[in-house]
Amino acid sequence: MLKPPKIPESVLVVIHTSDLQVLLIERADKAGFWQSVTGSLDAVDEPLLATATRELFEETGIVADGERIVLRDWQLANVYEIYPVWRHRYAPGVTHNTEHVFSVEVPRDVPVMLSPREHVNHLWLPHLAAADQCFSASNAEAILQLPRRTGR
């Protein structure tokens, strides 16, 4: 059975500690491509917070419980051109995606359980080094905004 085309609307979730160590995960389908959690809406009416919560859990095993671990919606959307290597996942003619940015502060010792079909490795880096490591410009820019967004 064919998968339906991806919806060209997604979330980016920057995971960080209180001292701005950032968790990056390496894509399984592209060795050396490091990023924060990302994922598309499952349905056009899926709330962005629900998408961010789901993707955070699916990709890292981290549960945003709304009390100890709280997702923050930055009310920021980036529109970017979809890399040609991934355009086949979308409907014909779709070339751009709208990405909504979230962040989540976690304890440094939070267990990370990657989804092996999506990611093969993870690492923690200081935010400036993490921004340099990202292959996505919008992901790097979000990481660079962490000090201002968190007041640290």
Using brief descriptors, characterize the structure shown.
152 residues, alpha+beta, 7-stranded mixed β-sheet, 4 helices, 7 strands, 22% helix
Describe this protein's structure:
The chain is of the alpha+beta class. Helices cover 22% and strands 33% of the residues. It has 4 helices and 7 strands, in the order ββββαβββααα. The chain has helices at 48-60, 127-133, 137-144, 146-150; strands at residues 9-16, 21-27, 34-35, 37-40, 71-81, 96-105, 119-126. Strands 1, 2, 3, 4, 5, 6 and 7 form a 7-stranded mixed β-sheet that branches. α2 runs antiparallel to α3.
Task: Indicate the percent of residues in helices.
Answer: 10-25%
Low-pLDDT runs:
none
Count of extended strands: 7
Radius of gyration: 15 Å
Beta-strand share of residues = 25-35%
Total of helices: 4
| Helix and strand pattern | EEEEHEEEHHH
End-to-end separation in angstroms reads: 48 Å
**Shape call:** globular
State the secondary-structure class: alpha+beta
Oligomeric state of shown chains: single chain
Instruction: Tell me the major beta sheet.
Output: 7 strands, mixed
Q: Please state the average pLDDT score.
A: 96
